Amino acid sequence: MKEGMTQRQDIPGENRFDVIVIGGGSAGVAAAISAARGGARTLLVESAPMIGGELISGISMLGCLSTRGDWIVGGVVTELLDRLKPLGGYIGPVFDYRALHLVCFDTELMKIAVMQAVAEAGVHLRVQAFFCGIETGGDETRVRLMHKGGEAWYAARVVIDCSGDGDVAVAAGAPSEKGAPGTGALQPPSLVYRVCGVETEPLLRFVRDNPAHFGLGDYPGLGMDARQCAEALYAQGQPKVLLRGTQGLLKEAIDAGEMYPTSVLAIVPTSTARKEVSINSTQLAGVDGTRAASLSEALPRLMAQVSQGLAFLRRRVPGFEQAALAAVAPKIGVRETRRILGEHVLDEADIMQGRKRADGIAKGGHELDILAVDGHRHETIAEGGSYDIPYECLVPHGQRRLLVAGRCISSTREAQSSVRVMGTCMAMGQAAGTAAALCALDDGWSGDVRDVDRARLRRTLIADGAVLEGTL
Length: 472
Ligand SMILES: Cc1cc2nc3c(=O)[nH]c(=O)nc-3n(C[C@H](O)[C@H](O)[C@H](O)COP(=O)(O)OP(=O)(O)OC[C@H]3O[C@@H](n4cnc5c(N)ncnc54)[C@H](O)[C@@H]3O)c2cc1C
Fold this sequence. Notes:
Elements: E1 16-22, H1 26-37, E2 42-45, H2 76-87, E3 90-95, E4 101-105, H3 107-120, E5 124-126, E6 130-135, E7 141-147, E8 150-161, H4 167-172, E9 176-178, E10 193-196, H5 200-209, H6 226-236, E11 241-244, H7 248-255, E12 264-271, E13 276-280, H8 292-316, E14 324-328, E15 338-340, H9 348-352, E16 360-364, E17 368-372, E18 375-379, E19 387-390, E20 402-404, H10 413-419, H11 422-440, H12 454-463
The chain binds flavin-adenine dinucleotide.
Flavin-adenine dinucleotide is lined by residues 22-28, 45-48, 53-54, 59-63, 130-131, 162-165, 167, 190, 192, 280, 333-335, 406-407, 420-423, 425.
C-alpha cells in the first residue's frame, strides 16, 4: 500500500478522532475550534489549500448584528474578530444605510487569524483533502477522503457536515431539497474580487450627490429617506456602497451592454491601508454548485465578468479611476444548493417573525435575502430583530452520529437565504462542535446526537460567549 493510504477495514489510531468536521468554512472552523476546546480529538477536513471558505473570499461578515444594531452572535465569532485587531485587519461594523450592519475586515489577515485560531485550539487538519464517502452504523462513523498520498479512511464518534452543500449528509442517505420548490431555481453564484487604489471621499461624495443610483434606506424603521441615508453614509466615511441592477448607473450600463446582467454591485471595504474594497457583483443564472461540470462551465464566464466589472468601475464610478485588481476569490462563491432535512425545518415564519425558542442554540438576524440575476427579494426581520435556531435544524433525519451546520442546515429556501450568512454559520458551527464534543466524550452517550443534554449544551454555549438570550 502506498504511503498515506489506509483501508476502510484497517483505520490506524492516528486516523481515529472523537469528532471529524468536513468543510473548513465559517461553520466548519467554528465547529472544529469548539469541539477541540470541548476536549474532543478533532479533525478538520478542507478540500481547498487554505481554510476559511467564504471567510477568505473577500466578503464581510453579515449576521453578527441585527438591523437594530444589537450584537446577536459572540463566542468564536468575536474571538476571531478580536484576533484581527492586533494584526491590523479589523475595520469593524459598517452600516450600509440600507438595512444591514456588515463586520468588515482584511481578507488576507483573516487567513492568518483563522489559521491561528484553529492551530491554538489543537485542531488536527487535512487540507487539499476531499470528502468522498461515508459509512455509518456501529459505534463510529467512517469517512473516505481523497488527498495527497491517495485515498484514506478516517473514523470518528461524531461527524459534522460543514461542506455548505451537504455532501456528507447526502452521501450518508439523509433527505435533502435543492433550490426553489417546483422550479429548482438556485440563487446565482458570484466570483468576488478585490480592487485596490480606491479613493473613498470622491466615491462617497458621488453617492451623497446622486442617491438615486444607489440602494439606500430599505428599512422603514430607519425613518430616513435615500438622501438622508446618503448623507449619513458620507459621514460614516467607509466605502460601503450598493449599486442595483434595477436603478440608476448600473441599470443604464446593463441596458447599454456595457455591463453584464446583474442585480447588484456591492462595494465593501477590505483594507484601509491598501485603499482596497471587495466587489460582489458577478452573477450567472442556472449554475449548480454541486456539479463540477456546471461550475467549470461558469468559471470562464465569471472571470470575463470580473474584467468587465473592473472596466465599468474605472470608467463610471468616481474614486475608481486609478483602481487596480488586487485579487480574485480562490473559488466561485455558491449561495445556494442543498438543504438537508432534519428534525425541525426552519421556515419563513420562524425568521420573519423573529421567533424565540427556549431551546435555541444560535441566533440569526440577516434579512430574507434571495438574489436572482434579474431581481432581489429582501425583507427585514420583524422590528429589525433576531430569531432563534433550534438544535433540531442541525440534526439530519435518519442519522445518529451526524450533525450539519452552515448554509445547508434544515430550512426552507426562504429561511436558508437568511441563515446562510457567515456570522450565523459560525454561531451554528460553534453549537454543532460543542454538541459533538459533549456527545463524543460522554461515556454514557446513547450514540444518537438527539440525546445530547440540551440544557448542558446551552449552558456551555453561553459560558463560551454565545449570544442565546437578551436580544429582541
Ligand atoms: C458571492 C457571495 C457573497 C456573499 N456575501 C456574504 C456577505 O457579504 N456576508 C456574509 O456573511 N455572507 C455572505 N455570503 C454567504 C456566506 O458567505 C456563505 O453562505 C457562508 O460562508 C456559508 O458558510 P459555510 O461554512 O456553510 O460554507 P463555506 O464557507 O462555503 O465553507 C464550506 C467549506 O467546505 C469545503 N468543502 C466543500 N465540499 C467539501 C468536500 N466534499 N470535502 C472537503 N471540503 C469541502 C469548501 O471548500 C469550503 O471551504 C455570500 C455568499 C456568496 C457566495
